[in-house]
Automatic annotation (TrEMBL):
CDD domains: CBM35_Lmo2446-like. Residues 617-745 form the CBM6 domain. PROSITE patterns: CBM6 (PS51175). The lineage of its organism: Bacteria, Bacillati, Actinomycetota, Actinomycetes, Streptosporangiales. This is CBM6 domain-containing protein. Signal peptide: none annotated. GO terms for biological process: carbohydrate metabolic process. SUPFAM superfamilies: (Trans)glycosidases (SSF51445), Galactose-binding domain-like (SSF49785). Keywords: Glycosidase, Hydrolase. It comes from the Bacteria.
Amino acid sequence: MSAHPKRLVTIRRPDGTAAAHGQGRGLNGRKLLAALGALFATAALLVSGQQTATADSNVSSASVKELTVDLSAKTKRSEGVGLGILYGITQDGLQPSDEYLDPLTINAYRSGGWYAGGWIKDKYTFGPGTQANIDAVIAEAKRLQRPPRHKVEYQVLLSDVFGSTGGAPANTLWPCTDGDCSNWITFIDATVTRLQASRQDFTYEIWNEPDLSIFWKPGVNTAQYFQMWDSAYREIRRIAPAAKIAGPSFAYTPERRAAQWQAFLAHVKAANTVPDEITNHDEGTVDDPVTVGQSLADALDANGIPQRPLSANEYQPADRQTAGDTAWYNARLAQSNYANAMRGNWSCCTIPNLTGLLTKTPSGWAPNGNWWAMRTYADLTGTLVSTSEQVGSTAISASADPAKKRAVALLGDIQGAYVGPMAVTFKGLSSTPWLVRDGLVHATVYRIPDKAPLYTRQVAFSQDVKVENDAITVPFDLESQHDAYGIYLSWTEPQTISLDAPTTVQPGSRYTVPVTFTNGGGQMDRDVRTSLAAYTPEGEPAPGFTITCAASGPPACPRVPKLASGQSTVVQYTMTTSADLPRGNYRFTAAATTKSEGQDVSVKNSVDALLQCGVGDVCEAEDGALSGGACLATDHPGYTGSGFVACFTSRGPSVTQRIVAQDAGTYSLDLRYAAGPDGPAGTRSASVSVNGGDPHQIPLPLTGSWNTWGDATIPVQLAAGINTISVSYGPGDAGWFNLDHMVANK
């Protein structure tokens, strides 16, 4: 999602009507990708047999939906197409931590270091803005291309280094204006030379989304565009003859604008400037990767251009940022002819959000349902196998991996169009004898709720299933809209860990924290070791905590040599806080390792201990739990605390705080907010919900500018003890506000 309101860009649909303003990568950042969502909204690609529900009334729930996986029908090696990201790590390449990066086995990344304004800001010379962008690209590449991630393809957005990141100044000197490409060639020479000198491996993307005027004002497929393209292509070839060149990175697919693709391909063939990798975006409603990939291949054939790798270097639009949608896209990407694909970033960019796969909480960054959907998809290793692909609105992909002795399926529903009973039948088990024992297969179904934060998947089904007619059927319920599901046929699944940690801590106190590890698989676990640690919101070991084994005293509790199938071990830890423990938020993480079936298994789970405000305290919004695309910001002065919460520019974002009341009763809740001139005219509004109850709308009159803060008050009923108060942009609200803090008073 984008940052807070800063400037308003009106996008027109093909029919000329004004599009609704939404969230994108950059009302204050890299891009105004809300423009993409609006531009695509009326060009839906209707996948055969697919329901594209957008509201609860469209959700279907009838008889059992049946899906199939044929383990005997191998299709192709699993390459993890879709395990790429756009921006999502910090410009120094250091964050997020490896625990959130490594399990995803990311194989593609795309960035241009938009952070400093680039060549445009440097007044078309090599200055500090351009250097800063290049430094960021190199730092990110060094992080991503060191072992074991050394094969990550890094696509450099040269247009972002240049500074064309949406909303360029009116006086921008676009490359090759009036046929003069000299300054553009100087830029290409300076940038590519420095990137090549870093000895990192780059694919050079010449220009991003030239078919959207906010990124390329002179117009796509014009004489100026082709001069820009051809001159850049030839200069890159001269400097780095072995490097790959990618393009055209059109926002529209061949189904949307066939003539646009035809004109581009015809020109580059005639000019001998055909990119080595064909790139496009799958962010329309619905750009099915299977269909779009085939249309790209057909377009190459039609123009007599030999086939070459395809890259969906941005996929999944802003209104489909759910666990179920992520699983759907990954399932379809696995079955497509793309070589790689990168998840679009709608909550861009400098924060380490891994394209929205991580959620900022008061205790630090944490995985959400999207992360776990991608994490499950990363387990589709080995060889892909035939499936029913898409049944109605539900897609499924699966793989079999004899080296890991498992088969894994991932399924998701597009736009939450189906809830209800599911049944997945796995056929051809005689081709995978390593899965069958005494006529049984151990099956585990993980539910991945669309939730933030989400520290572990939920086990929805775990049983030994009898093989009949060379097949088993695994039943479960798709419980809620936007859930994703992973099904594992493996004797090592599931291994789970839980902890009963305090949700608040006080100085000079002692707590007993039971950590429970369960072997839910169908085999013996060996050498089970557990641990417990406390962390600060920055992910560092928290000072002021002493954690020991309650039974014996040493920090490391004794290992369990053997743990039989279905058994659990409970380890009691003692956690002592110092008298001078800093007042703040903390995260407690339990971890376990074991050897199972010759495989090294590790699992984690966490609990957040959150600082709670009292009645009369200023509760900073940025210290609350953010969800639905709400984002942190600091660029409008006058806020209290360390910043404020923004991105309330389309429905869904919310922030939740905890307030402790000594007595139950009616309190006044004051919201400090800003509502500037961008967005809908007139009074804005938000929804306030207490303890999960019905939302109540609060009017938020305009404050005149985004730098001017006002106050709005609403009565709320608080219970004695801890209360959760959520402020959101709900279905009936006007939204378009920034939230600084809240205060409850008697």
